[in-house]
Specification:
Blueprint: E1 2-10, H1 14-22, H2 27-30, E2 36-38, E3 48-52, E4 58-61, E5 64-69, E6 73-80, E7 86-98, E8 101-110, H3 116-126, H4 130-143
Antiparallel strand pairs: 1-8, 2-3, 3-4, 5-6, 6-7, 7-8
Length: 153
């Protein structure tokens, strides 16, 4: 299996990050990369996403929801490529790392083997998803998220 990972530090609680990430109907208000997202985050359902390419063209992506664990993890699976021969699982995980600070990690696993050149091209495309984390961080900063609750030890 091949793996590619990105991470964004977000100055918001994990719950706030999850709320924004899991409210697909609001993605168009904060997200440049995926300006259209419809569906229910229910295991077995299919989401309907429009993803903006580097040239500005918008393409459809219809991933299957594999796992939903609020407020920590969302796992999607999609078939990609011109002949849909590659299956990628895309995991969004959210971790609280401090007072009002979280990390959004995105990890992709490729089920099929790819040669080094094909995987390099795929990783270049996947690297653009850092924009989603950047946009989410900016959106939550603009909203002025409330501080996380501090529980005494």
């Amino acid at each position: 299996m091949l793996q590619f990972e990105l991470a964004n530090e977000i100055h918001a609680t994990a719950e706030s990050v999850w709320d924004a990430l899991s409210t697909l109907s609001e993605w168009s208000t904060w997200n440049r990369l995926v300006p259209h997202a419809l569906g229910q985050l229910v295991v077995g359902s299919t989401l309907h996403l429009k993803v903006r390419g580097p040239d500005g063209e918008v393409a459809s992506l219809d991933p299957l929801v594999l796992s939903v664990i609020p407020p920590r993890e969302l796992v999607l699976e999609a078939h990609v490529g011109s002949r849909r021969v590659l299956t990628l699982s895309h995991t969004f995980s959210i971790e609280s790392i401090g007072y009002n600070i979280s990390v959004l990690r995105q990890c992709w696993l490729a089920a099929e083997p790819l040669d080094e050149n094909a995987w390099s091209v795929m990783c270049d495309r996947l690297a653009r998803w850092i924009e989603l984390g950047d946009d989410l961080a900016a959106y939550l900063a603009e909203k002025g998220q409330p501080p996380s609750r501090v529980v005494p030890a």
